[in-house]
Amino acid sequence: MEKAVLKLVQHVLETQAAALELYARAWCTTPEDVVQEAIVQLAQQRPLPERPIGWLYCAVRRGAISAGRAESRRKRHESAAARPLDWFEPAVGEALDARAAAEALGALSLEQREVLVARLWGGLNYGEIGELVGCSSSAAHRRYAAGLAALRERLGVACPKTNSCPKS
Fold first, then answer.
1. Whether residue 99 is found in the same domain as residue 163
2. Cys-Cys crosslink for 28: which of 6, 37, 67, 118, Cβ 3.0 to 4.6 Å?
3. Do 71 and 28 meet the contact criterion of CB atoms below 8 Å apart?
4. What pLDDT, on the 0 to 100 scale, is given for residue 163?
């Protein structure tokens, strides 16, 4: 493998792997496999994409949706009482109840959850998110603001005193 590709793969693993897994978890229960496959696909691209992180999010999204469909076909008759996967590490800090935050995030609509994860954990801008989910950047921003407001409401967290809070 070329040095540039190895460096890119190392950078992605160090900075984006966890966020990509969280993103994939919205559609499937095997996010690590989906992310690994997407990174392998990225390493095989010639030439490399202009925006490799955005490209990876698209590849992870497609792979996760496909994996989720396969899972639901295999597990059609399984019990719905399976333990939900945690979205947050248990020891995030005193200010955040990880289980409550995971439940609140899981209760959001897929559109809101997808945009929040891509923005907060993936660091994508609204234009990139719009391309990823098939909407305008302003629609991505509205989904983000609505998702944040819904999370705050579900968690009973007041908006900090800045101009960054969405209007209800």
1. yes
2. 67
3. yes
4. 54
